[in-house]
């Protein structure tokens, strides 16, 4: 089949490349000429494991190409995917659909023959119907259907998620459109991936509901972590025990500094706005949004408290600035709240991230960027783990501690065991677990009565 993809951002590029892997002929379009030039050479603008190699293979096979001309990506296509950005509006947080509607209007002008126009962008309920209205007004003679096909890709595992998804959600009641979409996802259907057909409005709500539920799980376990700290309990053991309940599941029950990224913050906000607009307030999700925002601010306070109540003039080393590992994405990352808050209190920041440093430099000022974790630790009064990259899980603790001014680690991701830190002589502060002191300091406090 011939497929057009409008937008070569994260969703568009992954989707287009993977559809090409399925054997389809794909043309991706973007207005950024420099970006298109780079993509034609197989150079991708994001860090996503496995994507660059897969794209190179598809370019070599002649199954995918890139252009700045929308006509080339639309004419004679069986399906055209809209995968442009829907950022939150600055005034009210609602999803900005300007790019989506502009794309729909332009696509209408180039349609030839029956075409399925698919919204891959994350959009509020009712958007597909508005796209249909816009396109029908622009081209009363055109033969097309509009379908909602939300994506459920995790950054850092997007290729795997596309190739082996938990399910494929397709919103359409058109028999012709269903036939085209079944053929597009035929490879997955043969692998017995559930392909769920529903109305467009249902599909649009499904996307937001899924992300809001996952964000709620994260926020829930973070609040349980606070309770564990006050009660002397261990949140990791709580999460393991409740996660063994099949009705709950263990995923997204990892306490930390709050969720971030390109999806959860904007999707939860958009869902609350849609609920208010339609007179069906999403009160649980509204609370999740508020609690998560406060969570990120509280993490800076927690670091300051661990440093004795002040970080003025102190060097704080930061490991990880991406919102999660295996991505260079720093959008709404906790680090963008935590680091400036520490700087406002007078801290000097040294930081390292395997992939996200370049992106973070666009948002963070006066940060001393280092080449590796050990350079960050050198001379630091405290070392803060914000992102749980694998390379941070097996640090040479003796080497780390040997160059620090104080052996203090504040682990916002709980990637180390308290006993391990105690044996290494660190004062160790984590999330939802009791603070650990090295044996010598604990004995000294016991003698002094503190």
| Structural class designation | alpha/beta
CATH architecture of the largest domain: 3-Layer(aba) Sandwich
What summary fits the major beta sheet?
6 strands, parallel
- Provide the spatial order of strands within the biggest beta sheet: 3-2-1-4-5-6
- Characterize the overall form: elongated
CATH topology call of the largest domain: Rossmann fold
β-strand percent reads 5-15%
Q: Kindly provide the name of the CATH class of the largest domain.
A: Alpha Beta
* Poorly predicted spans: none
Number of domains: 2
Strand runs, count: 14
Measured as a percent range, the helix fraction is 40-55%
By CATH, the superfamily of the largest domain comes out as NAD(P)-binding Rossmann-like Domain
Distance from first to last alpha carbon: 72 Å
Mean pLDDT: 95
Provide the gyration radius in Å.
24 Å
Distinct helical segment count: 19
Report what the structure shows:
With 450 residues, the protein is of the alpha/beta class. The protein folds into 2 domains: 2-198, Rossmann fold (3-Layer(aba) Sandwich), CATH 3.40.50.720; 200-450, NAD(P)-binding Rossmann-like Domain (Rossmann fold, 3-Layer(aba) Sandwich), CATH 3.40.50.720. 45% of the residues lie in helices and 13% in strands. The protein has 19 helices and 14 strands. It has helices at 10-21, 33-40, 51-61, 70-74, 98-110, 127-138, 158-163, 175-184, 186-190, 200-231, 235-243, 264-277, 283-306, 335-344, 357-360, 373-377, 397-403, 418-423, 439-448, and strands at residues 2-6, 25-29, 64-67, 79-82, 115-119, 144-148, 168-171, 195-198, 315-319, 348-352, 367-369, 382-385, 408-411, 427-429. The strands form 3 sheets. The chain has a 6-stranded parallel β-sheet with strand order 3-2-1-4-5-6, sandwiched between helices. Helix 18 (418-423) links the parallel strand 13 and strand 14. Helix 1 (10-21) packs across helix 3 (51-61) and helix 5 (98-110) runs parallel beside helix 6 (127-138). The protein is elongated and about 80 Å long. The mean pLDDT is 95.
């Amino acid at each position: 089949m011939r497929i057009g993809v409008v937008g070569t951002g994260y969703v568009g590029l992954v989707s287009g490349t993977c559809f090409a892997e399925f054997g389809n002929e794909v043309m991706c379009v973007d207005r950024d000429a420099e970006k298109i030039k780079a993509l034609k050479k197989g150079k991708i603008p994001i860090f996503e494991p496995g994507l660059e190699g897969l794209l190179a293979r598809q370019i070599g096979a002649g199954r995918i190409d890139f252009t700045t001309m929308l006509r080339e990506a639309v004419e004679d296509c069986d399906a055209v995917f809209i995968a442009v950005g829907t950022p939150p509006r600055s005034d009210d947080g609602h999803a900005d659909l300007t790019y989506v509607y502009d794309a729909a209007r332009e696509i209408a002008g180039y349609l030839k023959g029956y075409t399925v126009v698919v919204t891959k962008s994350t959009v509020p309920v009712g958007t597909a119907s508005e796209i249909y209205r816009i396109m029908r007004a622009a081209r009363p003679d055109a033969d097309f259907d509009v379908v909602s096909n939300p994506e459920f890709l995790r950054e850092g595992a997007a290729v795997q998620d596309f190739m082996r998804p938990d399910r494929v959600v397709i919103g359409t009641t058109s028999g012709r459109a269903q036939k085209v979409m079944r053929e597009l996802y035929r490879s997955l259907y043969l692998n017995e991936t559930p392909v769920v057909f529903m109305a467009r409005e249902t599909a649009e709500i499904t996307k937001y509901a899924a992300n809001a539920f996952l964000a709620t799980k994260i926020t829930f376990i973070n609040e349980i972590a606070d309770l564990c700290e006050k009660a002397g309990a261990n949140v990791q053991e709580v999460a393991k025990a409740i996660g063994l309940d099949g009705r709950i599941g263990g995923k997204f029950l990892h306490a930390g500094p709050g969720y971030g990224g390109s999806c959860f913050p904007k999707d939860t906000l958009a869902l609350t706005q849609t609920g208010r607009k339609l007179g069906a307030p999403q009160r649980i999700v509204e609370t999740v949004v508020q609690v998560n925002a406060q969570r990120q601010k509280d993490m800076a306070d927690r670091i300051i408290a661990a440093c004795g109540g002040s970080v003025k003039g102190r060097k704080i080393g930061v490991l990880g600035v991406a919102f999660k590992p295996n991505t260079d994405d720093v959008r709404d990352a906790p680090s963008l709240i935590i680091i400036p808050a520490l700087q406002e209190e007078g801290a000097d920041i040294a930081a390292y991230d395997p992939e996200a440093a370049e992106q973070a430099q666009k948002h963070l000022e006066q940060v001393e960027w280092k080449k590796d974790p050990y350079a960050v630790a050198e001379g630091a009064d405290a070392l803060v783990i914000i992102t749980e990259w694998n390379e941070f899980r097996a640090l040479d603790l003796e080497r780390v501690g040997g160059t620090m001014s104080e052996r203090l680690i504040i682990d916002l991701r709980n990637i180390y065991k308290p006993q391990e830190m105690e044996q290494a002589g660190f004062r160790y502060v984590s999330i939802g677990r009791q603070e650990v002191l090295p044996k010598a300091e604990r004995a000294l406090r016991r003698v002094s009565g503190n």
